[in-house]
Amino acid sequence: MRDIFDAxxxxxxxxxxxxxxxxxxxxxxxxSSGETQLQLDIQCDMIIEEEFSRVASxxxxxxxxxxxAELMHEDGEYFVAYDPLDxxxxxxxxxxxxxxxxxxxxxxxxxxxxxSCYVVYGPRVEMVFAENKTKLYLLQSGEFEFVKEIxxxxxxxxxxxxxxxxNWAPYHKELVDSFFAEGYRLRYSGGMVPDLHQIxxxxxxxxxxxxxxxxxxxxxxxxxxxxxxxxxxxKSGGGAIDGKNNxxxxxxxxxxxxAICFFGSNYEIARVKEVYAKNx
Length: 280
Ligand code: AHM
Ligand code: MG
Description:
The protein is of the alpha+beta class. The chain folds into two domains: 2-149, Fructose-1,6-Bisphosphatase, Chain A, domain 1 (2-Layer Sandwich), CATH 3.30.540.10; 158-279, D-Maltodextrin-Binding Protein, domain 2 (3-Layer(aba) Sandwich), CATH 3.40.190. Helices cover 30% and strands 29% of the residues. It has six helices and 15 strands. Helix 1 (2-21) runs antiparallel to helix 2 (39-53) and helix 3 packs antiparallel against helix 6 (266-279). The longest helix is centred in the first third of the chain and has 20 residues, at 2-21. The protein binds 2,5-anhydro-1,6-di-O-phosphono-D-mannitol and magnesium ion. 2,5-anhydro-1,6-di-O-phosphono-D-mannitol is lined by residues 35, 64, 83, 86-88, 162-163, 190-192, 219.
């Protein structure tokens, strides 16, 4: 695990440099979700692949930017799924973006996850790594230094509602509005890494990406977006559900499968469950 952690750190430092200097023009290629890939997305994917190719314990990788999983080392035991540059369309407006890593043992799947990590490229570069506990690191002078452990409060104040509102179910809109009616404040940048990072570090709240009329299974991908954050939120004392079930109990059929998802502190997650049990 240590070597994977090191490879993620090396990748993050290289990605930060790529974000700082690269022209982010669009390539001619589309990724598996049909989005036009930015040259920067492809470059970040290649950086991570190259770093993991040097780690003998990595058996297989799966990336948001690759159609299929790729074998790295026959004798490795870890399966790593990653989104190399989540929220990459925010780079041109200079908002924070991130990389997300789900580390699985023996195979991909929520039940096989053993650790999870993300990196935020913002005014500062920070990394959050969860195994038994959730730990925050800060990049300083080329090294990631441990800052503190992260623990969510029972209840927060932030509301980050994702997806096109026009396409929300009425009960979902009522749920989102009910948090605002209780005094929650809107915090939504359109990057799940900084949005979920903010909720974690400010002690709590709720992030939602519901099923919508145009995307009934939501937008966010199970292996490299949903499961990694579900793992981190659970290890931080919060919860992660699809409205009814814990996200970490869901299966997946394909590398790019998506899921409806809610991440938050316990109070908000309980509220979501109540509303979705009655309506969804
Ligand atoms: P991406 O992987 O193509 O960058 O998309 C994922 C991003 C998430 O970071 C964010 O939570 C979501 O898309 C925002 O979607 P929307 O603009 O529909 O709210
Ligand atoms: Mg992405």
